[in-house]
Amino acid sequence: MLKKKPVKIAPSILNCNFFNLSGQIREIEKAGADMLHLDIMDGHYVPNISIGPQVVKSLKQNTGLFFDVHLMVSNPDRMLDPFIESGADLITVHAETCTHLHRTLSHIKSAGLKAGIALNPATPLCVLEHVLGLADLVLIMTVNPGFGGQEFIPSMVAKIEALQTMIQNYQYAHDGAKNIEIEVDGGIDTGTARKVVGAGATILVMGTAVCHAESIPKFIAKIRRLV
Ligand code: DX5
Ligand code: ZN
Description:
Blueprint lengths: L7 E4 L9 H10 L5 E6 L11 H8 L6 E6 L3 H10 L4 E5 L6 H10 L3 E6 L17 E5 L14 H18 L7 E5 L4 H10 L3 E4 L1 H4 L4 H11 L1
Parallel strand pairs: 1-8, 2-3, 3-4, 4-5, 5-6, 6-7, 7-8
The protein binds D-xylitol-5-phosphate (DX5) and zinc ion (ZN).
């Protein structure tokens, strides 16, 4: 029986008030979030534009938070080095955007960062089969990427369960040595958090729920109690 991992909270700043970005990040850090989730959008792969490596670098220089960078861009290879230099601790790429996924993950790992693979709701788990050994994290999109505030797709719960089994099988075959996190992103709130954690999620990305909470520390404490 594998030990249950503690659940980590990763607030996303996508839907926060950018006029007060530093204030909100300070509040997130003080509230004890485990990491900061940074959504990078190029207006091409997804129909929205967010922030680039220069903003990430300025933020990283002013906080001790672990930076979980989620690249939603058409050509992630071109953007890897700028984000590595910006101070990212983990970079997640979408499997759908990588022509040479093994090469892209190897590049991130060789720079000393953690690497993640994101899968859109329609992308099957089988794309992970031959690259799981390079992944520190698999990100299951529980909405179609591009915007905060969308509704959670319920059929993703079964996908998370299947991924948990896939990871357990991988660990069993490799002496349990490797820890691979299951991150979920999109429509996570107090209701959906319990369902995804029950299915095996170990990192909860939360944008709207955290940024629109009356009190960020109280909201994070509530989620921790719930899961
Ligand atoms: C969506 C982004 C998410 C977004 C989640 O494409 O990847 O990280 O910020 O926002 P909520 O929690 O509001 O669904
Ligand atoms: Zn994200």
